[in-house]
Design a protein that fits this description.
64% of the residues lie in helices and 0% in strands. With 88 residues, the chain is mainly α. It contains three helices and no strands.
């Protein structure tokens, strides 16, 4: 395996990890939105959008917002939604 391939694989793992982290964090915060906007929510939304754009650029389908709310706020399964649409 070449260095370029190793770096590409590490980048992909990082992007997926960050997307999941911010997706679950956003979903948790959004599940409490009925009580008012949480502190730092705008910043969290920007980070979620940033990592989602990187995730989509790698060829993955984005997870729907409702699933993030259900997973982050209520513990629903989300792993089956992490799907790639194009292969290299």
């Amino acid at each position: 395996m070449t260095i370029k391939k190793i770096i590409k694989n590490l980048w992909e793992k990082l992007v997926v990890h960050k997307y999941v982290y911010y997706g679950l964090s956003w979903g948790f915060a959004e599940s409490y939105s009925f009580m008012g906007e949480p502190v730092g929510f705008v910043s969290l939304c920007k980070k979620m959008d940033f990592w989602e754009s990187k995730y989509v650029k790698l060829g993955y389908l984005p997870v729907c917002k409702e699933r993030w709310i259900e997973a982050g706020g209520y513990g629903r399964e989300y792993e089956s939604q992490l799907r790639r649409i194009k292969n290299d």
